[in-house]
Amino acid sequence: MFSYYFTLGVRSLRRNPALTALMVLTLAIGVAASVSTLTILHVMSANPIPHKSDRLFVPLVDNGSPENWVPSEGPNDRQLSYPDADNLLRSGVGERRTVMYNVGVAIEPPRSDIPAFSSTGLAPTRDFFAMFDVPFLHGQPWSAADDQRAADVVVLSREIAEKLFGDASPVGKQVRMKGTPYTVVGVIDTWAPLPRFYKLIGGQRFGNGEEFFIPFSNAIRHEMVHNGSMSCSGSRDPGWAALLASECTWLQFWIEAKSSSDRAEVQSFLDSYANEQRKLGRLKRNAPNMLYNVMEWMEEMKVVGNDSKLAAWLAFGFLVLCLVNTVGLLLAKFSVRASEVGIRRALGASRRDVFQQFLIETGVVGLVGGVLGLVLAFAFLALIGMQSKGMAAVARMDLQMLALTFLMSVAAALLAGLLPTWRACQVTPAIQLKSQ
Q: Is residue 48 within 8 Å of residue 209, measured between CB atoms?
């Protein structure tokens, strides 16, 4: 019986083409608008590293000045000072640790046909690559010994490696950066976690990643200027050494534990470390020491902002408005078929049979609206992606959202069709037969 009613639903689309087209278009626009915003929200809030997100932690100790501090205002900054980062790096806490900051340098290509160009990269420790599952196309990360001796080594992105050396492996070759020859030890493959959770402070949270990686100790040795945000609660002396000794916060730190159950152990260590530093006259605010896993860190940094959530609610509000209009159009469509319903009822069809038939017809409308809505959603996402590289990275639909588009369209049509279908079932056969 379902296949028969479905066939009737397909045929009914041709009865009043103008009214049917208006219903399908109204439903498609509402579904496309809501799915587009929901797709962006889905990508932005997705777990970027689900298999270990509960054992990767960002530690924070508040080293701000106690003057005029209100505890409800939260920590001084969401980064660490060099003394704290260096102490945590040497502590041995967790299975892996990495500290990082953004750097920008001029690269002098080995090829004469390419002029020097500026490039942005990251200065982490060796553990960075294993912590965040960075894939390698050629070579490997630098060694622990390279970290200790601040070696002039570099890991290139695939894009930069191909620009400088073509398709051949550049491992073992040299490239001059900031006037210093660096030996290439590896090339990472395409790696673009969404969002770039490992470095939410400074730079783009979505879009292209770093173009190169050098050891953190090397960047410190070469006094490479920090390319990002910095917070200093008090004055400091000029110079690189003064920056390293200051309480200015400008470094981002991650700890990887062996399992999520080790969180309490990491927190205990962080509390013990803060207490020791207070005995040395630091961390005078005596604020709580914070530890965030990946998803908590994304929430703390408001990766999904209130404006994105508001846009999603407005889109669903627009969908409700489209459903109200669809209800009116379905009432008009079914009202002209009162005589047909009266004859069917007189021939023995029950109200349940009529309800099933008309509801399946509205499902057919929803299915057609879903196809058109999918096309419009891709168009909307393409327009959104044209705004910036960051938006282009999140404005893409996966299989989950593809299935949701059809499910939402059919569900919306069925919801809109409940009242018109119920009204159609209330037709009195005798009155309709007398009017014929």
A: no
pLDDT given at position 239: 87
Say if residue 397's pLDDT is above 80: no
Give the C-alpha separation, 15 to 95, whole Å: 69
Residues 60-108 pLDDT 10s:
998 887 777 766 666 667 899 999 999 999 998 999 999 999 999 999 8
DSSP 71: G
Pair of tokens at residue 381: 């996402």
Lookup result for tokens 């500290």: 99
Phi-psi region of 350 (alpha: psi -120 to 50; beta: other; left: phi over 0): beta
Structure tokens at 126: 């060796």
> Residue 257 and residue 266: Cα distance in Å, rounded?
8
The number of beta carbons lying within 10 Å of the beta carbon of residue 320 is 12
Other beta carbons less than 10 A from residue 144's beta carbon? 11
The amino acid at residue 75 is P
- pTM value > 0.70: yes
Distance CA 319, CA 323 (A): 6
Query: Residue holding tokens 């959202």?
Result: 401
pLDDT band at 233 (very low <50, low <70, confident <90, very high): confident
* Alpha-carbon gap, residue 403 to 255, rounded angstroms: 37
Helical pair 306-335 and 17-45, crossing angle rounded to 10 deg: 160
DSSP bridge pairs for 120: 104
Q: Where are the domains of the chain?
A: 2-47+305-435, 62-288
Q: What is the DSSP letter of 203?
A: S
d(CA 40, CA 36): 7
Spatial separation of the C-alpha atoms in residues 327 and 307, rounded to whole Å: 30
